[in-house]
């Protein structure tokens, strides 16, 4: 039995119990005659405004630090949980003195700016927009405000890109817009630049433009290292679908874009350019990692943590590769990207609070379920509070105001378990695709671009015996899977009908 897929936007209140319950605050779930997206108030515009509003609330949360905690004492910026690298690095990395990143040597032990080139350009542009008059404290405040404005634009780009990646599910971007950990960590550092470029890369791939997606992956990798991991899932899915030419386009675009950004600095200031990579390699075990817990509990500095972390990360990537090639149905790109980035985070030597930003848009695309998303976000907010309370404890001297070491270790475990929980749910969706909320309407992979609806050409699975012939594909090349929907009632909202 076949049916033509309904291409109308999916109202989340008809598929998600948590969204339906929360909607009672604004009048309840959408009715049958509702026209989502009609008029000026389209889903994309609403999501963008919500994202900007939440970003502004995150800026308000930093107000105690802006009014003095960044400057008048180390512990107060931790007790108020409003710490940010941005004002501190304005002076510490030479921007206040108009030093040129990567070319001019810094005073002190750091020697050169320890950020990738495109992030360094972002920081430098913000310093050009910062007036040089007044006290250094006032200039640091303005520098933070300028960066916050630029990062707010990145947040809007992320919200729009996620809303448009799955054409029928624009409301899934509300997970990003309303994520509490997103608002709390958005202005700690400059990670949103790479996150925005990565989100647009996924959008371009979903539109069947692998070269453009690759260019954006290359630019994102020039801002932060983790986006290069997207090429692994893209390769695996292209291999399984027999579309390696699309992967070649993405790879070529990524390499060219990365070289365009990095080659001039690499050639003219090689020592400054290398600083990010040598710093990442030589950095000891640090906050937020499982390695820190082991080090603190055993008293061993774990000088070999690099080797162990690299080996375990590669093993995790291999497991994801096997999953991608053995799953009963080709996984969606967002699912695999989420898993590889989460594995990288879980096994890394350090987990800074803002690293959660890497995963928020990927989680919204991989597992758009409010219950699971909020469980994970609760764990991340607990870690956000835990690290600042621990730093308050270690910086308050004999007063010991804050969270002791054992409490901080518990906060790290909460973060690790929350991320592992979301990984487990995504893996379950890959192994049991009928439970995947994105595929309830018979879709293959709305973010799959040229791979969407393409039959497999290579897998590691043994061919299964079939008792009857395959049903013909409906219009559009998508096969509807009939059966009882395990996560919601049947109906015109995109849920699967009962047999």
TrEMBL record:
Record localization: Cell membrane
Region (Disordered): 436-499
Pfam families the record matches: GT87 (PF09594)
Keywords linked to the UniProt accession: Cell membrane, Membrane, Transferase, Transmembrane, Transmembrane helix
Primary location: membrane
Membrane topology: Multi-pass membrane protein
Presence of the UniProt keyword Transferase in the record: yes
Mitochondrion as UniProt keyword: no
Superkingdom of source: Bacteria
Similarity field: Belongs to the glycosyltransferase 87 family.
Name used for this protein in its record: DUF2029 domain-containing protein
Lineage of source species: Bacteria, Bacillati, Actinomycetota, Actinomycetes, Kitasatosporales
């Amino acid at each position: 039995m076949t049916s033509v897929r309904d291409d109308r936007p999916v109202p989340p209140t008809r598929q998600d119990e948590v969204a339906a319950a929360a909607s009672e605050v604004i009048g309840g779930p959408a009715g049958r005659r509702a026209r989502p997206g009609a008029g000026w108030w389209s889903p994309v515009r609403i999501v963008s405004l919500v994202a900007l509003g939440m970003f502004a609330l995150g800026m308000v949360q930093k107000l105690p630090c802006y009014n003095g905690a960044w400057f008048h004492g180390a512990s107060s910026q931790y007790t108020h949980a409003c710490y940010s690298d941005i004002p501190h690095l304005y002076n510490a990395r030479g921007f206040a003195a108009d030093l040129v990143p990567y070319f001019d040597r810094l005073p002190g032990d750091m020697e050169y700016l320890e950020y990738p080139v495109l992030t360094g350009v972002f920081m430098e542009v913000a310093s050009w927009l910062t007036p040089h008059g007044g006290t250094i404290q006032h200039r640091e405040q303005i520098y933070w405000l300028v960066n916050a404005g630029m990062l707010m634009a990145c947040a809007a780009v992320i919200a729009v890109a996620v809303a448009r990646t799955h054409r029928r599910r624009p409301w899934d971007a509300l997970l990003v817009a309303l994520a509490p950990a997103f608002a709390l960590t958005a202005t700690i550092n400059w990670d949103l630049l790479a996150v925005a470029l990565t989100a647009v890369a996924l959008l371009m791939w979903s539109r069947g433009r692998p070269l453009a997606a690759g260019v954006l992956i290359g630019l994102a990798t020039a801002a932060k290292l983790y986006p290069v991991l997207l090429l692994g899932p893209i390769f695996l899915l292209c291999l399984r679908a027999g579309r390696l030419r699309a992967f070649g386009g993405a790879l070529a675009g990524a390499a060219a874009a990365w070289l365009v950004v990095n080659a001039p600095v690499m050639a003219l200031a090689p020592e400054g350019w290398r600083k990010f990579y040598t710093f990442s390699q030589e950095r000891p075990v640090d906050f937020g990692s499982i390695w820190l817990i082991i080090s603190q509990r055993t008293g061993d500095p774990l000088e070999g943590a690099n080797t162990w972390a690299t080996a375990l990360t590669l093993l995790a990537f291999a497991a994801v590769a096997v999953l991608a090639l053995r799953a009963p149905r080709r996984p969606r790109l967002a699912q695999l990207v989420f898993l590889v980035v989460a594995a990288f985070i879980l096994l890394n030597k350090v987990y800074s609070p803002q690293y959660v930003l890497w995963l928020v848009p990927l989680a919204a695309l991989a597992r758009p379920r409010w219950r699971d998303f909020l469980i994970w976000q609760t764990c991340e907010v607990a870690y956000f509070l835990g690290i600042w309370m621990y730093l308050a404890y270690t910086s308050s001297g004999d007063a010991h105001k804050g969270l002791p070491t054992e409490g901080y270790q518990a906060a790290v475990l909460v973060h690790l378990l929350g991320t592992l929980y979301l990984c487990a749910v995504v893996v379950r969706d890959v192994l049991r695709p009928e439970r995947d909320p994105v595929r309830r309407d018979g879709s293959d992979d709305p973010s799959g671009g040229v791979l969407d609806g393409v039959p497999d050409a290579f897998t590691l699975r043994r061919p299964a015996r079939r008792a009857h012939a395959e049903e013909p594909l409906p219009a559009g090349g998508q096969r509807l899977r009939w059966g009882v929907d395990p996560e919601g009632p049947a109906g015109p909202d995109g849920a699967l009908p009962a047999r």
